[in-house]
Amino acid sequence: MDYIEITGSNNISFVVLLYKAYGSARKCINSLLKLKAPNGWSINIIIVDNNSPDDSYIKICTEFKENSNVFLIHNEKNIGFAKGNNVGFLYAKTHLNSDFIILANSDTYVYDTSFVNKLISNYFDAHFDIAGPNILSLKDGKHQNPERRQYYSIIDVKKRLLKLDVLYCFSFLNLDIQLQRLFRKKNNDDGDDYSDRKLLMNNDYQLFGAFLIFSKSYIKKYDGLYPGTFMYGEENILRYIIQRDKLTMKYISKLTVYHEEGSSTDESYKAPLQNRRFRYKNSINSCKALLNLAKSDKKYRNSDK
Questions:
Q1: Which of 116, 165, 167, 236 has the fewest CB atoms within 10 Å distance of its CB?
Q2: pTM, whole model, 2 decimals?
Q3: pLDDT tens, 265-290?
Q4: Does residue 102 contact residue 14 with C-beta atoms inside 8 Å?
Q5: 70: closest CA among 86, 83, 57, 53?
Q6: Annotated domain spans of the chain
Q7: Exposure of 257 in the CB half-sphere (CA atoms within 13 A)
Q8: Within 13 Å of residue 12, how many CA atoms lie on the same side as its CB?
Q9: CATH code of domain 11-150+194-263
Q10: Over the chain, what is the mean pLDDT?
């Protein structure tokens, strides 16, 4: 990879996408405000509201508008996870000239005040384009990072798409949970924590999208995440782009983040069945987005010969 020297403003920006879930977002922002910046560095927090239909954004503005390192952006409509985060990413890139940009879910918390120092130290030890920390679930205590790589080929994506289509259809009979159990049993998937397996640590993994760290080399080339999804599957597309563009990905076990999981979605869809259908539908659309991206890449490569 091309190493981009860190010079100039020397700042790190956290982008927090807000959609309802004021309580967890407030907790997230307060944890970030407690982080210590190394000498010569500054820490920014960019809050992007995806047009929350409740008073979450008003409350966040009231509480944090006086903080000089907190920047507040309001979208006129809910444009989804990738595009919403990209609004903050582009602000950090063009207005703040950030050396690192971190996309942090509003229900993630950083309690280690030396987090930024450790991140910068790790970067100078082993440069990366994209990195992810150890993410611990506050629901079951499991490690969510790194994840097992989900797709190795277009066939894998198509199989996943078929499975999601079936689950979505069966959800209208309220039989999707039983079908999920059958799928897990068939695939010998017992829900174990895979984060310490050698297969994953040998670059055969992907990073969980709840907390993604981008260095200057990535920031220079891209304006955020692939914008073709609304929610879910961003990690799969990012993993595809990492392989396609030969980017350097790193899992940093010394960095720890805590994840409450699904706060915004749970606030929007309190009924479990409605929640599952939302996930199925958007995951289906994300699979289609990945297939379209791979198809367009293949067409471009063929035309370039």
A1: 165
A2: 0.90
A3: 555 556 889 999 999 999 999 999 99
A4: yes
A5: 57
A6: 11-150+194-263
A7: 35
A8: 25
A9: 3.90.550.10
A10: 89
